[in-house]
Amino acid sequence: MTAPVGLETERFRLSLLPELGGRIAACQWRHPDGRWLDLIRPMSLPYDGDEEAGCFPLTPFSNRLRHGRFTFGGREIAMPRNTPGPHVEHGHGWQRPWTIAARGPGRIVLAYEHAGDEWPFPYGVTQTIELLPDRLRIELAALNRGEEPMPYGFGQHPFFPATPGTTLEARVESVWHVDDEVMPTSLGPAVELWGSEPRLAVASTALDTAFAGWDGEATIRWPEHGAGLSMVASAPLRHLVVYTPPGAGHFCAEPVSHCTDAFNLAAERDDTGITVLPPGAALISSITLTPFALS
Known about the structure:
By secondary structure, this protein is mainly beta. The protein has one domain (about 5-295): Beta-galactosidase, Chain A, domain 5 (Distorted Sandwich). The protein is about 5% helix and about 50% strand. The protein has two helices and 26 strands. The protein has helices spanning about 190-195, 260-265; strands spanning about 5-10, 10-15, 25-30, 35-40, 55-60, 65, 70, 75-80, 90, 100-105, 105-115, 125-130, 135-145, 150, 155-160, 165-170, 175-180, 185-190, 200, 210, 215-220, 225-235, 240-245, 250-255, 275, 280-295. It has a nine-stranded antiparallel beta sheet, with no helix packed on it. The N and C termini lie far apart (about 40 Å). About 45% of the residues are buried.
């Protein structure tokens, strides 16, 4: 594996691993008191693509696809398993090499081109990462390069540090209850798993599921570090996958465009968030991560 690519400004330091799924390996912010704080859980050396750290793009779908199979346009799609479990996870972009398409001060564009394999739809996707004066901005732009419609979904998979006092605040309407294989079984009110308080106590909550009806805004607070992080996602990223493994020292709040196993659920319902891109059509979305000091 090649050395990480660095981006740095007065307030931010970022390490990227284009060959390891276009992944952000580390992201730090300089607190007003001079300390450098990890906004993303940093990956360790040697870099391991299976480590629960960093932040990687999800394409052409997020989370799990039941047994890697679904039917679209009368054709059965079968993708090979890419994790130890029985289902295909996170698409394939996170396990493929990306290339550097452009680079400038505080900005880099990573690109992935998919010619078609078990996923038979050719497409291209770019990930533009920018360090702005007060925030990190990540844009995903996907283009259907094929001659037929393509089902599609995308998002980001950040691992955030978790301290004993960490909280996650977000406005969500509903939640997907899941079975022992973390596959969706039913949709219910978000309060059933989130609880009645707006701030979720990460350390005392065990979740691994998708919340729907998200307004695109979330706030993380690390009181031990005197810092917080505001995350804002543009449409169609209106699902929030929350993963809070107890005692792990990290958690996930993933802005994504659709629910788990959406390609299969879309055969029976119209609220999964799946997009069907016509030939030549594009789908673009972005997230911004804005750190702040707690008063």
